[in-house]
Amino acid sequence: MTAPATDSLRVSGATLHHEVRGSGPLLLLIPGGTGGAAAFDGVVDRLAAAHTVVTYDPRGMSRSTLDDPEAEQHVAEHADDALRLLDLLSPDAPAKVFGTSSGAIVALHLLATRPERVERVVAHEPPVVEVLPDVATHRAFLTRVRDTFHTHGLMPAMTVFAAGLKKESDSSEPEARLELPPQAAARAERTMGDLPYFVGRIVPSFMAYAPDMDRLRSLADRLVLAGGRDSESELPWRATACLAERLGVPLQRFPGGHVGLTTHPVAYGEFLEASLRTPAGV
């Protein structure tokens, strides 16, 4: 993998660690879960052949520190962080943006609020449960995750979280499965260290986010929505499929499941590369 140029950027309330590779039009990659910049290790070289690729650790994750470690987290603030990176690295031209999971929610908000800065957004399985017809069930689920975390701690909350994400037809005992990184021990350690922050502050806030449907519908020609081939009927997939139907855009099928970026990096990278150059809506 090509060594990146690394730097830090001061934003309101945080310092963002970011990495830059390649040359050409800017492509910003927004990770989900606790992945951070390293979540894209398996695809970044392919993408950097035609783009200046920017990866980063979202505020509060890994090497991107918060001024106030207890600060509440909000989608709009994370989207503003992404905007600051665009303004720094592509001040005169709109950029392409990819986001996965919670990072896809950030990408949707960035498109809705600052469309002049975004040429295209590819959003893989944003868990926007507020668009679902049975939203009350999922609001109750998020409340259970939050209450379990505060009352019983991280791993019991992860078990509740995993159970709420599983396929509707899956009656097996849920696993507290994490978004596993590649084998690097240092990255795995960082991932585990960020879990309390992710479960305690990112999950309840981000999964309560309600997209601006009218605004996104007017920008649908710039939006690609994607779901994993292996995650159909899981909660993030169902939310994304419902969003696609309501916006009138097709749902692209990417290799793997919700974490196909990690489990199928070569095939996933090929699909992502194609989705960045194929006209949206095709």
TrEMBL record:
Signal peptide: none
SUPFAM superfamilies, alphabetized: alpha/beta-Hydrolases
Keyword Endoplasmic reticulum: no
Record's keyword annotation contains Hydrolase: yes
Coiled coil: none
UniProt keyword annotations, A-Z: Hydrolase
Domain AB hydrolase-1: 25-136
Superkingdom per UniProt: Bacteria
MF annotations from Gene Ontology: hydrolase activity
Protein name: Alpha/beta hydrolase
